[in-house]
Design goal:
Number of strands of chain A: 15
Shape of chain A: globular
Number of helices of chain B: 15
Oligomer: heterodimer
Distance between the termini of chain A: 79 Å
Helix content of chain A: 40-55%
Order of helices and strands of chain A: HEHEEHEHEEHEHEHEHEEHHHEEEEH
Structural class of chain B: mainly alpha
Helix content of chain B: over 70%
Structural class of chain A: alpha/beta
Number of strands of chain B: 0
Shape of chain B: globular
Chain lengths: 391, 333
């Protein structure tokens, strides 16, 4: 009796042992590396919430494989991102790397993706050059140039002739300035003055005085999202809103996540961007409702759609390869994919592996007592202008 | 007691302190063994070794000379940028890069020490903080050279001394960093147990008395500040060589604050504090972070409060010391 149960136990163990490797083989792991501590926590939270929401809505089985999401915090430091990426590939055997909240974080991981042939889905970082750093990088967010160039086009078409630019003095700010200035000049516009404000503790008052003196038709602004509120407050305090000078810029300054805290000063600001919480499609209404429900009322912003679509891209690529996790096959499957995102129709450019999407022109308005970026014009199928210019 | 005896006693004390305890041998043997035994953790261990070197350099200042600094990342980041730019423009041989970064950071330390050594602790805190902020802004502004907020990439990493490849070789790269840490640790140990090192402690204990017995306070402090800056620069260069990008976070306030935290957790004034502290800090960040990424900082803060209350001087190590002392007392009633 004892012996039989012992044998049974042995058999069960053998079965379990036999079954475990098979089960492990069935699992496909995604390593999501995002900043969850440090100054860029909000970006990380948006990305994580969106990735989890997508998996909750679409199940965790794709092409017969179980999908497992491993979330890791890099605190916004490049050396951590690179280390974690290496560990995820080596120790956890992930088939995808995803996340990347800032440009240096993506740059640090690019050689690792190339070396190990693991697809790397950039869900947030926006500098143009990132996708050129590895043939295994695909981007689902946006590039800085997309919004900056489109707002220049829109301004030129809407009787704005003279513009003063005002950007935060760091690399993305310089890019935003250059993209806008080049495009606006090529459309016959005039740049009266280009101002740069320091990144630490910015006080816009002296700069705004120079704007008043220059009397442009519009002030073009690019700042990190939180700083936009200070600028808009001072813009109104100094009476620039009544002087007929319009405030325009890429959508980072009216980030949906922080917009409700801006107050009425932000009303009327016109920006160009790839996503607004207010985007009037059925798909987006459903997305926003589900996102807010799962995250204590938090608004999804442009970072979140990068995360949501990034996981979608991974799911679709796996479906196309029939669950195979070979890096080259997955990349081939990702190139040229088209789908309907909460932000509208998007696709992956098969040549550059960068995102192609509609850029919307939006005006900040009050709806039901809350501020939203309300879309009123759109430019479809916008590619990264920096790469397009290189050809 | 004749003066000859006193001199002999002093030299005995110094020899005894300079010699190695068996625990130290065990520690370095374990570190060497980890190259072969823990391949899955090499990336983390590499980071720990680099932070250890950085914390060791701060220990030379804080633990021995009593100079508090809130801006030590200035030299770390400067060393990293120098190493990266040197590799891009001249040669990608890592040891040469370390030397160049060390000399450059040392020179920066020498120049800035003249500012730092004025005034009291509070002044020094502010001046070191200010130097780091200025360095940060310079790195940000010169984006044509440093890449600014986008980071500096494209740094070649050739085999060490021409024959030991570390690029994309996790084990080799860890071994390289560990050897550098060990060599610089041995040098630091010689420094702090030399007459020079003892004079620093005298200055730390009471600057007035130190100068009245003939110690030239300022030249000594300038020397140690320069050495510490060179150490920090080498640590930065190591991080640049083992990470594919040098970014502004190498030089930000958070890094200066973190290294101070690590050193205080591990304890100051016995050289191992930085190593123990950075190991605890990074292991906690990784493993608590894997469970609840958002809350690991809570536990670091908690540990800091406990240490500040119960084990001020030597961090966690003093708790071990207290237990040892207590057991000794218990052994002979």
């Amino acid at each position: 009796m004892l012996r039989r149960s012992f044998l049974a136990a042995l058999a069960a163990t053998a079965l379990a042992a036999g079954a475990t490797p098979a089960a492990a083989q069935e699992t496909v792991k995604i390593g999501l590396i995002i900043p969850l501590t440090g100054p860029f926590t909000t970006t990380g939270k948006q990305l994580e919430a969106a990735a989890k929401l997508y998996m909750e809505q679409n199940g965790t089985t794709v092409a017969g494989k179980k999908i497992e999401l491993i979330v890791r915090d890099d605190a916004g430091r490049a050396e951590n991102t690179a280390r974690i990426a290496g560990e995820l590939i080596q120790n956890d055997k992930v088939s995808f790397l995803a996340g990347f909240g800032l440009t240096p974080l993506a740059m640090a991981t690019a050689p690792i993706a190339t070396n190990s042939k693991v697809p790397m889905v950039v869900m947030m970082a926006g500098t143009s050059i990132i996708t050129e750093r590895s043939p295994y990088i695909v981007r689902t967010s946006f590039t800085l140039g997309q919004s900056a160039v489109i707002i220049a086009d829109w301004a030129a078409q809407n009787k704005i002739k003279k513009v003063v630019t005002l950007v935060t003095d760091y690399a993305p700010g310089h890019d935003a300035e250059k993209s806008f200035v080049d495009q606006f000049k090529s459309k016959g516009g005039e740049i009266v003055e280009s101002l740069r404000v320091p990144i630490q503790n910015p006080d816009f008052a002296p700069f705004l005085q120079r704007v008043i003196d220059a009397k442009p038709d519009a002030l073009y602004v690019f700042t990190p999202s939180g700083v936009g509120a200070i600028l808009m407050k001072q813009f109104v305090e100094r009476g620039l809103d009544k002087s007929g000078i319009r405030l325009i810029g890429p959508g980072d300054i009216t980030d949906d996540d922080v917009l409700p805290g801006f107050g009425d000063a932000a009303v009327g600001v016109v920006t160009a961007h790839n996503y607004s919480t207010d985007h009037p499609s059925a798909k987006n209404k459903e997305y926003v409702a589900a996102f807010r429900k799962a995250n204590a009322g938090m608004r999804p912003n442009f970072a979140s759609v990068g995360g949501y679509d990034g996981i979608h891209l991974i799911y679709e690529a796996l479906k196309k390869t029939g669950g195979k996790t070979d890096g080259d096959a997955l990349l081939a499957a990702m190139k040229g994919l088209k789908w309907e995102s909460p932000r509208g129709p998007i696709s992956i450019d098969p040549e550059t592996r960068d995102i192609v999407q509609t850029i919307y022109i939006r005006r900040v308005e009050k709806k039901n007592g809350e501020l939203y970026n309300v879309e009123f014009a759109s430019f479809p199928d916008v590619k990264d202008p920096v790469k397009a210019a290189k050809k | 007691m004749s003066s000859l005896d006193t001199a002999k006693d002093a030299s005995n004390v110094m020899t005894r302190k300079r010699s190695w305890h068996w625990l130290e041998y065990a520690f370095w043997l374990a570190a060497a063994a980890s190259v072969f035994l823990l391949p899955s953790q090499h990336a983390l261990l590499t980071q720990i070794a680099i932070w250890s070197l950085f914390a060791l350099s701060l220990d030379l200042l804080l633990g021995y000379a009593g100079i508090v600094s809130l801006g030590h990342a200035a030299y770390f980041g400067f060393g990293a940028y120098v190493a990266a730019l040197f590799a891009i423009n001249f040669t990608g041989e890592p040891v040469t890069g370390l030397l160049v970064a060390g000399v450059a950071a040392g020179l920066l330390g020498l120049v800035t020490s003249l500012l730092v050594l004025r005034g009291t602790d509070l002044t020094r805190l502010m001046v070191t903080l200010g130097i780091a902020l200025v360095m940060y802004e310079i790195a940000n502004q010169m984006s044509w050279l440093t890449g600014g907020a986008d980071g500096l990439t494209g740094m070649p990493v050739n085999p060490v001394l021409g024959f030991f490849p570390i690029y994309f070789r996790q084990a080799n790269s860890y071994a390289y960093v560990l050897v550098v840490l060990f060599v610089l640790f041995v040098v630091a140990k010689r420094i702090v147990h030399s007459p020079f090192g003892y004079s620093l402690r005298a200055i730390k204990g009471n600057p007035l008395r130190a100068s009245s017995i003939g110690i030239p306070n300022n030249p000594r402090l300038i020397a140690v500040y320069t050495i510490a800056a060179a150490y920090a620069g080498i640590a930065g260069a190591l991080l640049a060589q083992t990470t594919p990008v040098v970014s502004l976070t190498y030089i930000d306030f958070q890094r200066s604050a973190d290294v101070l935290l690590m050193l205080i957790i591990g304890g100051t004034g016995y050289l191992y504090g930085g190593i123990i502290g950075s190991a605890l800090f990074l292991v906690a960040q990784k493993f608590i972070g894997n469970i609840t990424p958002q809350y690991w900082e809570f536990w670091i803060g908690f540990a800091l409060v406990v240490i500040a209350l119960f084990a001020r001087d030597r961090g966690l190590f003093s708790i071990v010391e207290r237990i040892a002392a207590w057991r000794k007392r218990g052994a002979k009633p």
